[in-house]
Structures are given as structure tokens and as C-alpha cells.
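Quick start: what a row looks like.
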Amino acid sequence: AAGLPISAIPGPNAAVMALILSGLPPQPFLFEGFLPPRQGARQVALARLRALEQAGLAASMIFYEAPHRLAESLEDMAAAFGPDRPAAVAREMTKRFEEVRRESLGLLAAHYASAEARGEICIVVGPAAAEEVVGDAEVTAQLRIALAGGLSVKDAAEAVAKATGRKRRDVYREALGLMKEAE
């Protein structure tokens, strides 16, 4: 500020308006702004957020998105967070053509794959359900129990992955690590 006066102008904020109109839990929330435009970088950013959820984060997430990338971003979100995750797409907040669609990520992705999006867009993704947020310690504990019960590494990893919603290959790697520790 270097001695210059700073002032704020009160008024609507598209992210907060979208959160309110989404009907999803308003607090806590995480504002992410625009996701990376390239699919690979976007998927990495979404995987980071999913990892935060698995570590215990339970918050509604707000994103801005360009109309021409909306369908791709929704597909990537459905892949990262699950197609049944509640979400909303809000466009043109506080303007004449304001619109909010409230559905699952999978249904929103399907809709916008064939429907043209226009205007300024906010995506609000609801928090993970309590049963979706399974921490690393829980996965490790379940693996130890399964392996101690006589299951093979493959079968233990498959069972724990299914029970926790984690990727099977990640759980398999964890199981291999536990087996090496036990040797």
C-alpha cells in the first residue's frame, strides 16, 4: 500500500453468490479460482484437492471456469470426486440471465457435453460425504487387519480400495510397503 489509501467497494461476488444459490453447505468453503486450462495440469490440481479431502478436508469448493472448458472440467471433476458428488453450475450471477443448475457432477458433465455454456461461470462442488473422507491411517489400519487375516496382498488391496473409495493401485502399493516392513 506504500502510504496510498485503499478502499473496497461493496457489491456482489460471483463466487459467494454461487455458493449461496447452490444449496450446498456454505461453510467451510474453499475458493480455487480458475483451474489450469490444460487437461493434465487440471487433473493434477483436482487430484491434489481429492488428496486433501482424503486427509480430512470437508469443504464446498468453488471454481471459476470459461464456457468453452466447462464440459471438460466437469468431466475431470466427476473423475476426481466421483460422478455422484453434488454440485452446481451457476452462470451470470447477479445479471439478467442468471441461472443455476443443481445436480451431480456426472449429470452436469453429461448436460454440458451437449449444451452450449455462455457467460461467466462458477462451479460449486459439495464436500465429500463423511464416509468418502478416509485418512491414510485408516487405510493402513484396514490393510494391516486384512493382511493379518490371511488375505493376499492383491485381495487385501482390492477389498480396502473398495471399502475406502481409494484407487486400487495406490492401496496395493501401500500393502506392498506394509509387507516389506513386516519382513
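That is the whole record. The chain has a mean pLDDT of 88. The chain has two domains: 14-125, 136-182.
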